[in-house]
Hints:
Elements: E1 2-6, H1 11-22, E2 27-32, H2 42-46, E3 59-62, H3 69-74, H4 76-97, E4 100-106, H5 129-144, E5 149-153, E6 156-157, H6 163-175, E7 183-186, E8 190-191, E9 194-195, H7 196-215, E10 223-226, E11 233-234, H8 235-245, E12 253-256, H9 258-261, H10 276-280, H11 288-298
Parallel strand pairs: 1-2, 1-3, 3-4, 4-5, 5-10, 6-9, 7-12
Antiparallel strand pairs: 8-11
Helix pairs in contact: 1-7, 4-5
NADP nicotinamide-adenine-dinucleotide phosphate is lined by residues 6-7, 9-13, 34, 37-40, 63-67, 82, 86, 104, 106-107, 134, 153-156, 160.
Amino acid sequence: MRWLVTGRDGQLGSCLAAGLAADPAEDLLRATSHADFDVADARAVARVFDDVDGGVPDVLVNAAAFTAVDRCESESELAFRVNALGPGLLAERCRDVGVRFVHVSTDYVFDGRAREPYCEQIPMRPRCVYGQSKAEGERRVLEVLPDSLIVRTSWVFGPGKNFVESILRQLERRRSGTIEGPLAVVDDQRGCPTYAADLADAIRDLATLSLRRDSADGEDVRGIFHLCNSGSVTWWEFARAILDLAGYADLAIERLGTQDLDLPAERPRYSVLDCGRAARLGVRLRPWREALASYLTSRPRGATAEGV
Length: 308
Ligand SMILES: NC(=O)c1ccc[n+]([C@@H]2O[C@H](COP(=O)([O-])OP(=O)(O)OC[C@H]3O[C@@H](n4cnc5c(N)ncnc54)[C@H](OP(=O)(O)O)[C@@H]3O)[C@@H](O)[C@H]2O)c1
């Protein structure tokens, strides 16, 4: 299949691009970065399939997004441009040219007040600007092109800025004496950590299935799907596992409450996603702990990342 991927320099986009480029059975026509293609620029979107060597792709995966959750609170116009306007424009272009559109969304579209995993049909009630902009993106995409796939995921870690790197960086700073005092992590938010490389593979499988099913028995592989590594944790439990797997089981971590951090954006307290719909089609991600171990062994030795 022929693919076009946006968000090439992000966690998910880089895994998608690397996996597709390395697979001789797939044809990655183009993977765009923010610098060479702004998903919210209508004129650029109108030309997105022009001059692509190999012609029009079968699938466009939009992994580009404005993901800085707290910055979205003060930069809401930008958040809606990138996370809602852009996906809508891409969906229009895909509809006009006949390309399957896969758009990636988030657990932050939910309010976090549930007590059991969220399935795809539960109404969106985002509590922060990032979640609102992503929810609006989903609505626009499905309105324009109901055949699209919307893949909601959560707590992504992969090449780039993420929670795992943040914990490892804080560990290093304590070991080098730059910072004193124990590590402290929030223990009252629960979700599903997701390895970007596993998510990329699952997105490929789902998109492939959606095109095959269209041409075969016509079974409904379109609309919203939840895709995360299996199992759930609090951020504290996740930090504990990171340190244990990195060989620092003896290092203590203090437990914080969400209110202790006083961050601009409200986070869902509970955002475990029910991935049963994809699993029934045979698309399943492994348990998060196995995925974390894999990430820790594959990341460049001594790598650290700024941010999160
Ligand atoms: N990270 C998470 O924990 C998480 C959780 C749930 C869902 N998701 C969703 O998963 C998807 C992938 O996330 P990720 O973690 O891979 O994000 P990421 O690492 O932040 O990557 C996003 C990429 O999009 C690019 N981008 C931003 N604005 C753009 C624009 N206007 N045009 C084109 N590219 C633009 C960014 O480039 P610059 O950095 O140069 O701006 C960045 O390379 C997103 O849809 C996100 O909402 C992520």
